[in-house]
Backbone:
C-alpha cells in the first residue's frame, strides 16, 4: 500500500520561525536539506534512541543539526562542513537558535579531519554529505560508534537513480550512483550491522551496530 503525500504530511509538526526561515532559504538558494517527512522520522527515532553524542557529516546551513538538538535535549551534536559559504550561514543560524550551546561546528573536509580530535565515541552518526563518498565516510567514522550505536544515512534513493540500471543513469551521475550501489550492497551484507532501509523522503538507511 502506498500512502498519499497529504496523509504523510499531516503528521509533520509545526516548526518555529527560525526553521521556517531556513527552509525558505534552502528552497530559494537550492541548498539540499533533509525533506520534512524524513527529518520527522529521523528525529522521532533519535528521541527513542536518546543519543548523548551525535556526529553529523555534512552541516550545510545547520538545519538538521538544529532539528536534532531540539528533538533530543540531552544530545550534543558535532557537525562537519567544508563549504565556506555554508559554514558562515550555519554559524549564523545556529547562533540564532536556542540550542547553539549543544552544537559544535568543525570546519573542514570530513575525510581530512583528524578523527582523534573528536575526543570520544558517538552514540549516533548521521551521514548527509557527498553520496559517492558514503563508503569512505562510513569506514572513517564507524570505529567511533560502539556496539548498540546507530549510523543513519540520507538520500540513499537519490530521487530514483539508485534503482536504475547504471546505463540508464545520466552520464554525469554514473560514477556517484555506481559507488552508492556498491556501498548499498556492502552495508546490506555487513556482518557487524543490522541495516534497514526506510522509504521516506529520499531514502533513509539505518545501520545498527551489533
Residues:
Amino acid at each position: 500500500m502506498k500512502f498519499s503525500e497529504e496523509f504523510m504530511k499531516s503528521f509533520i509538526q509545526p516548526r518555529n520561525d527560525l526553521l521556517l526561515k531556513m527552509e525558505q532559504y534552502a528552497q530559494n538558494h537550492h541548498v539540499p536539506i533533509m525533506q520534512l517527512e524524513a527529518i520527522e522520522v529521523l528525529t522521532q527515532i533519535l528521541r527513542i534512541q536518546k543519543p548523548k553524542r551525535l556526529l553529523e557529516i555534512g552541516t550545510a546551513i545547520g538545519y538538521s543539526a538544529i532539528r536534532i538538538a531540539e528533538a533530543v535535549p540531552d544530545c550534543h551534536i558535532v557537525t562537519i562542513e567544508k563549504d565556506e559559504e555554508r559554514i558562515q550561514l550555519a554559524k549564523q543560524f545556529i547562533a540564532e537558535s536556542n540550542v547553539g550551546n549543544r552544537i559544535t561546528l568543525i570546519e573542514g573536509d570530513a575525510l581530512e579531519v583528524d578523527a582523534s580530535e573528536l575526543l570520544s565515541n558517538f552514540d549516533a552518526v548521521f551521514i548527509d554529505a557527498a553520496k559517492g563518498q558514503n563508503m569512505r565516510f562510513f569506514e572513517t567514522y564507524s570505529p567511533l560508534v560502539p556496539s548498540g550505536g546507530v549510523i543513519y544515512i540520507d538520500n540513499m534513493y537519490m530521487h530514483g537513480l539508485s534503482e536504475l540500471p547504471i546505463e540508464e543513469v545520466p552520464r554525469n551521475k554514473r560514477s556517484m550512483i555506481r559507488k552508492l550501489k556498491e556501498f548499498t550492497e556492502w552495508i546490506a551484507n555487513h556482518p557487524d550491522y543490522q541495516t534497514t532501509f526506510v522509504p521516506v523522503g529520499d531514502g533513509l538507511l539505518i545501520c545498527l551496530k551489533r
In short: Residues 68 and 207 are 18 Å apart (CA to CA). The mean pLDDT is 94. Helices lie at 5-9, 17-29, 36-49, 63-71, 84-96, 134-141, 174-188. The beta strands are 53-57, 76-81, 103-107, 124-127, 150-153, 193-198, 204-209.
